[in-house]
Write a structure and sequence with these properties.
By secondary structure, this protein is an alpha/beta fold. It has six helices and six strands; from the N terminus they run E-H-E-H-E-H-E-H-H-E-H-E. The protein has a six-stranded parallel β-sheet with strand order 3-2-4-5-1-6, with helices on both faces.
């Protein structure tokens, strides 16, 4: 038997990383398991997953992100770092509290990749998680160390995207 928690990672440049993680949340909720989703970059409360989560007692979504992350030299980058750190603190509480069977760290790979979070602090969080908690990490640019931590890694690859054909973000699809 493995003494580590179950760790799944959805990464890559294609669409569907958060959607896959939310599908897992829905599946877990269907079995009566509680799920906490911490969104490290997203901060729009008007998206479909937030609206759906308030209709269930099993799924809680915590948005700490401030939206698209600006370039490293931007004056607002410190605000994004602070928001990401708040997300890490919320994730730590969710994992340590034992209330959740699954904790989803949405866009945490982006937060690490863009320098909002220290990679080692994320690695430590994952390694210190109890065996009973399933962790799901998402985001573009997963580092080799984060890939190594996961027991299941799926890379979403963009072949074609509606945005390139002029489709704006659409409710129920991207929002």
């Amino acid at each position: 038997m493995n003494d580590n928690p179950r760790i799944l990672l959805f990464t890559g440049d294609g669409k569907g990383k958060t959607t896959a993680a939310l599908g897992m949340a829905l599946r877990a909720a269907g079995h009566g398991q509680r799920v906490c989703v911490v969104q490290f970059v997203k901060g729009n409360p008007d998206v479909g997953e937030v609206a759906a989560a308030v209709r269930t007692t099993e799924i809680e979504i915590v948005q700490t992100g401030l939206g698209f992350v600006p370039p490293a030299g931007n004056s607002r980058i410190a605000e994004h770092r602070s928001a990401a750190q708040e997300g890490l603190d919320k994730a730590r509480e969710a994992i340590a509290g034992g209330r959740y069977s699954m904790v989803i760290l949405d866009e945490i790979c982006v937060a690490v990749n863009r320098g909002l979070l220290d990679e080692q602090s994320v690695v430590d969080l994952v390694r210190q998680s109890p065996r009973e908690t399933c962790l799901v990490l998402t985001g573009r640019g997963a580092t080799p160390r984060i890939v190594e931590l996961a027991d299941t890694v799926t890379e979403m690859r963009c072949i074609k995207h509606g945005y390139q054909a002029g489709w704006p973000a659409q409710k129920g699809v991207e929002l």
